[in-house]
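Q: My labmate handed me this sequence with no annotations at all. I'd like to see what the chain might look like in three dimensions before we decide whether it's worth expressing. Could you predict it?
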Amino acid sequence: MHLEAVDLHPQAYPTTSRYPFNQDVFQKTKQIRFASPVTFFVGENGTGKSTLLRSLCYKCRIHIWEDPEGNRFEKNPYEKMLYRYISIQWKNGSVPGSFFSSETSRNFAHYLDEWAASDPGQLNFFGGKSLVTQSHGESLMSLFRARYKIEGLYLLDEPETALSPKSQLELLDILDHMGRAGHAQFIIASHSPILMACPNARIYSFDQAPVREIAYEATPHYQIYRDFILNSDDRTKKRIHTRNDHGTGCTLSSAIAAFLAKGNSLEESVGAAKAYITKALEAGAAYVVGKGRGPVHHFHD
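A: Here is what I predict for the chain of 301 residues:
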């Protein structure tokens, strides 16, 4: 462990009407502690994860490899000022480190190629070959494998962006092993439930103010992916277009009870009842009974 905590000082903010100082998460959060070698910042887009991550970079004197900013339609003078109003607590003094984001990684790869043109040995620190000549995902993995063997503080902004699920699993293994080795500490803003599964990682949610620690299974990312996989059949099946859906819920519950009474397990009964009501809706779609919505066809074959 290198960085133990970051403290925010909202009473000193220069404004409360412009981003990022107008965000509840930065007004109400006083401190975030880093008690694990791997820490995740999670939350919806626009909740401030990347802003705090970059502010930590500036405060820790970690360089961000980005091109000079060009003209913008509307410029916010406070956009990059949060670092001035935070303080950090090192465990045993500051350490070097690096910042990663998908958009800055290509800038760094081109700088590295320029250095290697006069000193090819530079590539030995990044997997032994040019990052530019590899695919985006391959170049990132070469960078991660080589760089994170070195002692330091590593801040990553959505590293999963260009990675396949298999590569994300490899990065997960790197985070786990390098973190447990004791020389590397990672603070990561991510939307990847694969990376968030890193053993013993701490996860902080930015979806409410103040920021709070959250269990892996309680993250929306885990829950959404889990529900999608468990219900993937339902999502890929065609919707039944019918006006005759009266009694659908009652029929489904009655069918579950009937299948249970026949000695089936709960899982078997629910599955059989779902199949029954699906066919009842399909069979009843073609006929007309009076006006308005009609009943499902209980006596389909």
